Amino acid sequence: MSSTFGTLFRVTTFGESHCKAVGAVVDGCPPGMELSAEDIQPQLDRRRPGQSHLTTPRNEADQVQILSGTEGGLTLGTPIGLTVANKDQRPRDYGSMSQVPRPSHADYTYRAKYGIHAASGGGRSSARETIGRVAAGAIAEKYLRQVFDIEVVAYVSSVGTVDAPQIDLATLDRPAVDASMVRCPDAEAAAEMEAAIVAAKEDQDSLGGVITCVCRNVPVGLGEPVFDKLEATLAQAMLSLPATKGFEIGSGFAGTRLRGSEHNDRFVMKGERLGTATNNSGGIQGGISNGEPIVFRVAFKPTATIGIAQTTVDLDGNEVSLSAEGRHDPCVLPRAVPIVESMAALVLADMALVQKMRV
Prior knowledge:
Layout: E1 4-5, E2 10-14, E3 21-27, H1 37-47, E4 64-66, E5 70-71, E6 74-75, E7 80-85, H2 107-114, H3 130-148, E8 151-159, E9 162-163, H4 174-177, H5 187-202, E10 209-216, H6 230-239, E11 244-249, H7 260-263, E12 267-270, E13 273-276, E14 284-285, E15 288-289, E16 294-300, E17 310-313, E18 319-322, H8 333-358
Antiparallel strand pairs: 1-2, 2-3, 3-7, 4-7, 5-6, 8-9, 8-10, 10-16, 11-16, 12-13, 14-15, 17-18
Helix pairs in contact: 1-3, 1-8, 3-8, 6-8
């Protein structure tokens, strides 16, 4: 079950970085919803490699095919099969690394756990696995928009030591995010981020950063008490992504510096419903959505595979100097934006279906 996510809206991803294809099976999507490849492709285009000089040069169109679960452009309520071909495969790039586990990569832990590991590109630990998540997330997003008018928008809020100023999350949209190659809606910060990534790339090094995500128009009541709290499930979803190392919601760690009198979200009337004057809770209280925008941040480490020679050891313990070959992102943040959005959509769609069963 390690490749399956969700309770009612369930997604199982398949494929390795250099196999013939990757994809997903989506089970639990309600019937009768209009769905075509054109609904899914835009998010895959935002995720795909080779978009700019800031990303890996691997040349993949990442065109999705719907294999099952629809007829006449409508979902049937049966499993939806999605596949994307791996066309630009170069397993030969990894020959010299087959016996040398890359520092801070999953090569060693996968081999230790299973006794075998896909030597080309990281196998299931590769970011190619996230194609299935993004394709499935696009379906979840369409359902959320049609039923609740929910909007999910993420952006790069920091790269290395460059931080974007506070963004108006009430009006932020994807065109504003995509206006820069680095996917930061603040032009000045975006330029600094781009320069930092280019410098790291020229040094054959890498950078990490933070993605901020906002989910608007989420109805009150999503999330389950105790173990399946909404923020807990979001954290699981985000930390299951490659290269993630941190998650915080609302005020996050900064909130620990405040007193309760400063941090508490005071209730006010917003039209005909209760709302809060502030949103330090990040749209979730007691593990259940409160109707305010859900705001969270995800930390991504610097890309583990770099071109700089590193002193390490091979599987026999012999000291070697490793200079990684292959094609890798100097910073994963620009391409990770739609992945974060997709995982958020999968969580919300699943929670919405669970809540629907209660009423």
